[in-house]
Amino acid sequence: MNIGKMSLSIAKAVAVFFGWCVGLLVSAAKPETSDRPQGDGSDLFGEHNFRTGRADSGADPDGWYEDDM
């Protein structure tokens, strides 16, 4: 193996490793949760709407609520 091919192989390995490191840092910076603030569309309060499968204020005119059953 000559010096040029060996240098190219080392450069490729360094580039792949650098890309992997950058990808690891970028993935660690993203929040892994999809939590929304309470009171702004949160599923943690309100009436369960069986049409949408989520909790809401109970004012959806097309919604199916427990009282409707």
Features:
69 residues, mainly alpha, 2 domains, two-stranded antiparallel sheet, 1 helix, 2 strands, 39% helix, rod-shaped
By oligomeric state, this entry counts as: single chain
State the helicity in percent bands: 25-40%
- Helical run tally: 1
**Uncertain stretches of 5 or more adjacent residues:** none
Tell me what portion of residues adopts beta-strand conformation: 5-15%
Measure the end-to-end span.
Answer: 78 Å
Q: Biggest sheet, in brief?
A: 2 strands, antiparallel
The coarse overall form would be rod-shaped
Give the H and E element order: HEE
Rg is 26 Å
Total number of beta strands:
2
Description:
Helix content is 39%, strand content 9%. It folds into two domains: 1-30; 34-69, no CATH class. It has 69 residues and is mostly helical. The mean pLDDT is 78. Strand 1 and strand 2 form a beta hairpin. Strands 1-2 form a two-stranded antiparallel ribbon.
SSE layout and pairings?
Blueprint: H1 3-29, E1 47-49, E2 54-56
Task: Give a quick rundown of the structure.
The protein is 39% helix and 9% strand. It is mainly alpha-helical and 69 residues long. It has two domains: 1-30; 34-69, no CATH class.
